[in-house]
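Fold Annotation — chain and its backbone
Next Lines — sequence and tokenised fold

***
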Amino acid sequence: MFLGLKRILKLSWISFCRNQLSTVSAIFVIFLTLFIITAFFFCQGLIQFLILQIQEKIDISLYFNEEVSEGEILKIETKLSQLPEVKDVKYVSKDTALEKFLEKHKENPEFLQVIDELGENPFLAALNVKVWEKGQYEKVLEFFEKAETKDLIDHHNFFENKSLIEKIYSLNLRTQKTALLVSSFFVLITVLVVFNTMKLAIDNQRKEISIMRQIGASNFYIRGPFLLQGIIFGFFAFLICFLVWGGLSFLIGKNLEGFLGGFNFFNYFVQNFQLLCLIQIGSGVGLGIISSFICTQKYLKV
């Protein structure tokens, strides 16, 4: 058994080295497919990171009528914090809202002039509410639709933030669909290229295959080198892709971190090292052996 495997490996390596142009083409197209799949993997990680960042910053602000006392608002805050959907709730008084506005626009004299001309604090007291998941804001609004609280609310900004949240999730879904379509296209191209490479290898070894059939070589012994060659294609493509993405993520990680809101490609690469290895080697070897298997099934009737 061991001797048979050794011979299969030897024949596979000879065929691998013999057809250099076809071999390079097959490895390159598998590498290209792996590169695209990995690019979408990083893109998905970036989008998930940005979604979490925006979710942390986005909340809904419920503004209370002028005549509502601070005591009443604090009671509502306590009840609101007990809802299972609510992650965090903060009370912002009129004075605090004014202080934040002045601090934010201290470099813009036009805004400060408007406040001076008004002669009073134009802001309303508010509760800023964060929930665990995007679909739970409606539950918070249902709480304020009750008779005892409905008349206390002046307005809220839910629909403004809802539009932004939905756009972010829509972007995520579009990215996933695009990844599926583009990856499927490259997978099809890969299968065709590797299939033709295997067909060429089979055609070049017709005489050897014929001799092996005549001396009674087993199905496994004849097909084995071609299947193993497909695995070798995938493995070399995986090594190249892994090294390329490792180097690329290292080079651009720090440079793009500020631009991408704190997302570091190299840190993501390191954190997902094992998963990325599995995806790349699984996809590379899988594409190689599937293409080889289809080809041997079609052209090697043993």
Q: What stands out?
A: Residues 158-204 form the longest helix (47 residues). The domain at 66-151 is CATH 3.30.70 (Alpha-Beta Plaits). The radius of gyration is 31 Å. Residues 269 and 276 are 8 Å apart (CA to CA).
